[in-house]
Amino acid sequence: MGAVREFSEQLLSGALRPEEHNPFTTFQGLEQYAPGLAFVSSFANAIAIETRAGLVLVDTGSQLTGAMIHGAVRSWSSAPAHTVVYTHGHVDHVMGAALWDADAQGNLRVIAHDRVPARFERYVRTAGYNTAINARQFRVPGLQWPTEYRAPDELVSTARTITVGETVIELRHDRGETDDHLWAYLPEHRAVCSGDLFIWASPNCGNPQKVQRYPLEWAVALDAMRAKNPALLLPGHGPAIEGEAIVREVLESTAALLRSLHDQCVALMNEGRALADVIANVRVDEALLGKPWLRPVYDEPEFVLRNLWRLYGGWYDGNPAHLKPAHPDAVASEVAALAGGASVLMDRAERLASDGELRLACELAEWAGRASPEDRGIRARRAAVYRLRAERETSLMARGVYEDAANR
Q1: Alpha helix ranges (H) inside 291-392
Q2: Digits of tens for pLDDT over the chain (408 positions)?
Q3: What is the CA radius of gyration of the chain?
Q4: How far apart are CA 246 and CA 388, in angstroms?
Q5: Would residue 164 be called left, alpha or beta, if left means φ above 0 and alpha means ψ between -120 and 50 degrees?
Q6: What is the pTM of this model?
Q7: Which fold has domain 326-407?
Q8: Rounded to 5 degrees, what angle do the CA atoms 395, 397, 398 make?
Q9: Closest CA to 239 of 21, 15, 20
Q10: What secondary structure does DSSP assign to 185-214, as a single string?
């Protein structure tokens, strides 16, 4: 048994805890799952399919991992590169394409959804913003967002079946984490290449720093995958999953979590509830979150609810004071004056933090810091509250934001 298979089985059996061995980020190398089918475990995975006409790559890695993926595949196959399929336009999936372009000496075909070119244009237009938010999310100081992308040669709108050599690859578009997502089905291997529609974590469907996601359509995509009755799931992140029964369970349970969040949120919105009430009243199925492939180690359900609110309700959260709010610094100064000073607010924040009331503690610590921005002692105490908050969070996204707040 290879490293990827062993890692997958240990996660599924409970021998390894996803919180301690994050499947989203653990690299396990290349593993062959059938003759002519290899899976490269990286930060973002790649799938290599050897055909009579040459290699097909489903995703190619990032600017940091593309060379490793290229080398791993080349150690497995010397077949000429023929086609690259982008499951979507995220940089950790597309930036290795330039290496395969050079490998194919200009004869490479790149296939993607028809919204990918617009994504690349947006990435160039907002490169500074993407540099800032991704450095914060992934805690990578000095990160630089790319501004050059290998454009696709052929675009898919809803679905398309391609044949390379005699190998058939079915491509289908569904919105989920992105609006430009394709997933692939390989009939010969009964394998689904899910891209980021499955990532060994609670679905990345609410990322607080990124553009709109689509929970209900994501669930529909998972149902469509399940309808293929696959025996092998090759995800965008984390190890492959083998076996008809477990693949079915993985797809069903992920769709069930998304539908539960969606339906509860919409029901409360239809009652006229405000966003704060929606978040307070939606109940997450802990049995689902307890599954090793649905732990909130990257995104988390609360963020999905906020994303659903944005999708259906816009940015107004139902609190009229937030429609045209005062600047946070002005609010902080006023609250500090009422409380008797920034130090009083900070004292209370620390007491709340020690009692485990970290949501309130951060609110008061933030007010204290904004009310007295030149007080180094207040700033240090504020940072300590945010570091404690970061330590208690399970998702990479929340930890990244709170650690950034502490560092600032």
Answers
A1: 301-313, 328-339, 342-354, 358-371, 376-392
A2: 789 999 999 999 999 998 888 776 667 899 999 999 999 999 899 999 999 999 999 999 999 899 999 999 999 999 999 999 999 999 999 999 999 999 999 899 999 999 999 999 999 999 999 999 998 888 788 889 999 999 999 999 999 999 999 999 999 999 999 999 999 999 999 999 999 999 999 999 999 999 999 999 999 999 999 999 999 999 999 999 999 999 999 999 999 999 999 999 999 999 999 999 999 999 999 999 999 999 999 999 999 999 999 999 999 999 999 999 999 999 999 999 999 999 999 999 999 999 999 999 999 999 999 999 999 999 999 999 999 999 999 999 999 999 999 998
A3: 23
A4: 37
A5: beta
A6: 0.95
A7: 1.25.40
A8: 70
A9: 21
A10: EETTTTEEEEETT--SSS-S---TTS----
Say yes or no: do domains 3-259 and 326-407 share a fold.
no
CATH of domain 3-259: 3.60.15.30
CA 379, CA 374: separation in Å to the nearest integer?
8
Nearest Cα to 285, choosing from 275, 274, 296?
296
State how far the Cα of 273 lies from the Cα of 310, in Å rounded to an integer: 14
Structure tokens that stand for 348 in this block: 């209370």
- Distance from C-alpha of 187 to C-alpha of 167, rounded to nearest angstrom: 9
The encoded tokens of residue 209 equal 């720093």
HSE-CB for 346 with a 13 A CA cutoff? 22
Amino acid at 352: L
Residue type, 131: T
Q: Where exactly are the structural domains of the chain? A: 3-259, 326-407
Calculated CA dihedral for residues 125, 129, 133, 139, nearest 10 degrees: 100
